[in-house]
Specification:
alpha+beta, 6-stranded antiparallel beta sheet, 3 helices
Length: about 140
């Protein structure tokens, strides 16, 4: 336990997502326009050449973007869209998605996410960069 109520709530929200549980994702930081999501690299998350599958990187970017935006827009948010640029194959022991809000208004936020892998010697390698727009969801509307 961290004692941080916002982080604990973010962890509960992530744990409520079956796919997040499937990949073993965890929120390690949350608040003030930022979120960090981590996924341990496992053999079942690799593609045929031994690199972490691009879909796992995209998943991590999408969720980290949305969690970071939620710190600015509130808990009911949805990703409107995002783009990702892969720069090098993702190899290492842990994938880290570090997202931060670039700009937030009342109804939407623009968020950037750096995706890095951490190797056995704790060295970090930037593998991809994502940017997206996240919208405040209105539960009263369809």
């Amino acid at each position: 336990m961290t004692g941080d109520p916002a982080l604990e709530l973010a962890r509960k929200v992530l744990d409520s997502q079956p796919f997040s549980r499937l990949v073993g994702a965890r929120v390690t930081a949350f608040g003030e326009g930022r979120a960090i999501l981590e996924v341990d690299v496992r053999p079942d998350l690799l593609q045929q050449n031994g690199f972490l599958h691009g879909g796992v990187l995209s998943y991590a970017a999408d969720n980290a973007l949305t969690f970071a935006a939620g710190t600015a827009l509130g808990p009911a948010v949805l990703t409107a869209g995002f783009s990702i640029q892969y720069m090098r194959p993702a190899v290492g022991r842990t994938l880290v998605a570090r997202a931060s809000v670039v700009h937030a208004g009342r109804r939407q936020a623009v968020v950037r996410c750096d995706l890095l892998t951490v190797g056995e010697g704790d060295e970090e390698t930037l593998c991809a960069v994502a940017q997206g727009t996240v919208l405040a969801a209105d539960p009263a509307r369809d």
